UniProtKB/TrEMBL annotation:
PANTHER family membership: PROTEIN KINASE RELATED, SERINE_THREONINE-PROTEIN KINASE 36
Entry EC no(s): 2.7.11.1
GO molecular function list: ATP binding; protein serine/threonine kinase activity
Protein kinase domain span: 16-252
Protein name: non-specific serine/threonine protein kinase
GO biological process: smoothened signaling pathway
Top enzyme class: transferase
UniProt cross-references to Pfam families, sorted A to Z: Pkinase (PF00069)
Catalytic activity: L-threonyl-[protein] + ATP = O-phospho-L-threonyl-[protein] + ADP + H(+); L-seryl-[protein] + ATP = O-phospho-L-seryl-[protein] + ADP + H(+)
Entry annotated with the keyword Transmembrane: no
Residues in coiled coil: none
Tree of life domain: Eukaryota
Keyword entries, A-Z: ATP-binding, Kinase, Nucleotide-binding, Serine/threonine-protein kinase, Transferase
């Protein structure tokens, strides 16, 4: 166990006691911490400023500002953020474990996969309703998912990584597997996805829609919300200020 002392007054007032050893990530350090007065257990991400350009720091601050305004049960809640001389610090809800641990530990049942799919789709729809588009890369071991830049194609298009995650949850390995980003591009754009015979036809239809190589033909809104594999389990979270945007997506 490691206890830290920060000179920042806001930190001392809100999240002073660190109760667990840190984890190192590509972006910095993550601590399991306790909020000073409520006792709430939180995650504290400490991101060093050293080595980052002013543009990168502005982008990071903008990302945190966006996250402060997101309120969805399947999106980690940003509770606080502030800066010290050398670091930018984010305080968020604490989540025990990560999705890749499920992927590594065992194959899971279809109902659990459906539940995870519904939660992911609900969160994505909420983000897209806020006009938030994302680009992300996740690599660990031989597993690679690369989020695409979402483009305006007359409607919102869901990126390929959702299909990759759901495919691996069912099959036990990713549809495209390589440690090379250059080979990954070739696999995604040219190689056919291998399907297993025992896959539920409705689930296969969902994956085929998500893994279509042409983004303009990929399953998007509102079709994804209405797909029979997930339609009964998706919870739509609406904020007043995005109701009109979401209604427009439904109407297309």
């Amino acid at each position: 166990m490691e206890v830290l002392a920060f000179a920042h007054a806001r930190f001392q007032a809100r999240v002073r006691v660190v109760v667990a050893a840190r984890r190192e990530g590509s972006f910095g350090r993550v601590y399991k911490a306790r909020r000073k007065y409520s006792g709430q257990i939180v995650a504290m991400k400490c991101i060093p400023k050293i080595g980052k350009s002013e543009k990168e720091l502005r982008s990071l601050r903008q990302e945190f500002e966006i996250m402060h305004n997101l309120h969805h049960p399947n999106i980690i809640l940003m509770l606080d953020s502030f800066e010290t001389k050398n670091e930018i610090i984010a305080v968020t809800d604490y989540a025990e474990g990560e999705l890749y641990q499920i992927l590594d530990d065992e194959r899971i049942g279809e109902e659990q996969i459906k539940s995870i799919a519904c939660q992911l789709i609900s969160a994505l729809f909420y983000l897209h309703s806020h006009r938030i588009l994302h680009r992300d890369s996740i690599m660990y071991g031989a597993r690679t998912y690369r989020g695409e830049t979402l483009r305006s194609l007359g409607r919102f298009v869901v990126d390929l990584s959702l299909g990759c995650i759901l495919y691996e949850l069912y099959v036990g390995k990713p549809p495209f597997c390589t440690n090379s980003i250059f080979k990954l591009v070739k696999l995604i754009t040219t190689d056919p996805v291998r399907w297993i015979p025992e896959m539920n036809p409705l689930f296969k239809d969902l994956l085929q829609g998500l893994l279509t190589k042409d983004p303009s033909r990929r399953l998007g809104w509102p079709e994804l919300l209405r797909h029979p594999f997930v339609a009964s389990g998706i919870v739509i979270v609406q904020d007043d200020d995005v109701y009109a945007v979401s209604a427009g997506i439904y109407a297309e």
